[in-house]
Design a protein that fits this description.
The chain is built from eight helices and no strands. The chain has helices at about 1-10, 20-40, 45-70, 80-90, 95, 100-120, 125-130, 135-155. Helix 4 crosses helix 6 (about 100-120) and helix 4 (about 80-90) packs parallel to helix 8 (about 135-155). It starts with a helix and ends with a helix.
Length: about 160
């Protein structure tokens, strides 16, 4: 069970790569994993929502297991939260699409990482006060929501 937990929370061991910050690398890998499903419409919108909720719930379970195995709270190895953040943004890909694919993917990556790193309210409160698996995930969900709102607003005016 430890191996499965490790694979899941580290996004197939992406969280162990330290060349660049694990959250940044995991965000990039998440784009590579999720984008083809969105671009080629391989999954229906309802299935995307179902998968997001399933991964969200599994993440809570596996983060709790990982934290107990390692006696940590929000280890840098845990990057499934970045995956969930990117996944949520890609559910709304058509609404945040700007000019072309490359511009959109670059904007998603940069804006999400900005909000994830700087943890603008309420993400900062969640990050500091919620010392549980849900808190590990929710600050990234907030970063995703901010990313969606900002890119949607840009999309309206471009």
């Amino acid at each position: 069970m430890k191996i499965l937990t490790n694979i899941f929370v580290s996004l197939f061991y992406t969280g162990y790569i330290k060349i660049i910050p694990p959250g940044t690398f995991a965000s990039f890998i998440s784009i590579l994993l999720i984008y083809p499903f969105i671009e080629f419409k391989l999954l229906d919108f309802k299935i995307l929502i179902f998968l997001f909720l399933l991964i969200f719930l599994l993440s809570i379970y596996f983060i709790k297991k990982f934290s107990s195995y390692t006696s940590t709270h929000d280890s840098g190895i845990i990057v499934i939260d970045e995956f969930l953040g990117m996944f949520l943004i890609f559910i709304f890909y058509e609404k945040v699409f700007i000019v072309n694919t490359v511009t959109t993917l670059l904007a998603i990556f940069i804006v999400f990482r900005f909000f994830d790193i700087f943890k603008i309210f309420p993400a900062n409160i969640i990050d500091k006060k919620m010392n549980n698996p849900l808190g590990v995930i929710l600050d990234d969900i907030v970063a995703s929501i901010y990313t969606i709102i900002l890119l949607y607003c840009i999309n309206i005016y471009v």
